[in-house]
Amino acid sequence: MADRTSLERLRAANRRAVLGALLTDGPQSRADLARSTGLSRTTVSSLVQDLIEHGLAVETTDRGRPHKGGSGRPPLLVAATSARGGVAGIDIGHHHVRVAVADRSGVVLAEDVQPVDVDDHGSATLDRATRMVRSLARASGREVADLRGVGLCVPAPIDRRSAQIRSGILPGWHDLVPTDELQERLGIPVAADNDANLGALAELHHGAAHGVGDFVYLKLASGVGAGLVLGGRLYRGATGIAGEIGHVQILEHGRVCRCTNRGCLETEVSVPRLLELLEPAYDETLTVDRVLALEAEGDAGVRRVLGDAGRTVGRALADLCNSINPSLVVVGGPLGSAAPLVEGVRASLDRYAQPATAAAVRVASAALGARAEITGAIAMAIARAALEE
């Protein structure tokens, strides 16, 4: 009985993965679904047939293109049937709350962003997010009760056992369970994840990693984190904190980190640290936008600091790449578009990763920029809403 129950749960999870891929990415062939979910073609075919029989998917009359431009008869596409209601995405950063209401295909219907002092005010931040969801639902012609789910992004790891935010990152959120708090306020299902994971999910479905089964999404912001996608799925680890590359020790006697260790990667390459390093050489208060403008103008000092940061990050990434052998590293966060940073990562991977590993991995800037987290939150809400179908 236990084995049968486990198999039923596995099939249900795989079914949700296929339906979630159709809802977030649109019509696809069975082969595309196998690539995006990491499931075998036989399994996908069986699950698609199940979805069709239950009225959750249909075969379209339009045919897709052969994979990678190959010859032969194009495959039939599978599409999710029209889904009722909408979803909301909430992106909570350290200094802002962004909320969007979207339809079940991911099209944003209404959106707002407000400055908020987040770190020390957990309950007040969730109250603000609740008001924004209600207002935007009305602006999109819906009520909150019409929404089928909410995806919540927070700038800190969430422990999968307790559903609480890891202590020390957001001091004002101690003892809060964000999903329970929001679900009580809104009365609809809420799923939550950290910003690096949802950035990875967004780039997987809509950005630089679309169609890539194994990649690392690196986010450099106020901290440093990584989202890992393996076999087409987010990998969170046993307790939900996989990808915490920012707390790899790179200097034994370095600065004390917010995690209480010394010399963590993020103490050397976080955005605030890079601005701190650059400001003494410039007669102005530097912002991210100003640094990017200086880099675009070819400023030697900015390019050197960003290149050094990329090489430092790349050294830590090389060990990770040796372990999981990804085909892509996506560099995101406020400075992710800076060429010297990306080139520095590439240089360290070539120097420190195993030659075959380095040769297999491509390094690219993220495509979605500041919209990665809200896009990932919406994608998660769409996928989780399939649980209620």
From TrEMBL:
A GO MF annotation of the entry reads: DNA-binding transcription factor activity
Task: Indicate the segments forming the HTH marR-type domain, all copies.
Answer: 17-63
Superkingdom to which the source organism belongs: Bacteria
Q: Which InterPro entries match?
A: ArsR-like_HTH, ATPase_NBD, HTH_MarR-typ, ROK, ROK_cs, WH-like_DNA-bd_sf, WH_DNA-bd_sf
Entries under Pfam families matching the protein: MarR_2, ROK
Indicate the family of this protein: Belongs to the ROK (NagC/XylR) family.
Q: What is this protein called?
A: ROK family transcriptional regulator
**Naturally occurring in which organism (per UniProt):** Nocardioides pocheonensis
Q: What is the lineage of its organism?
A: Bacteria, Bacillati, Actinomycetota, Actinomycetes, Propionibacteriales
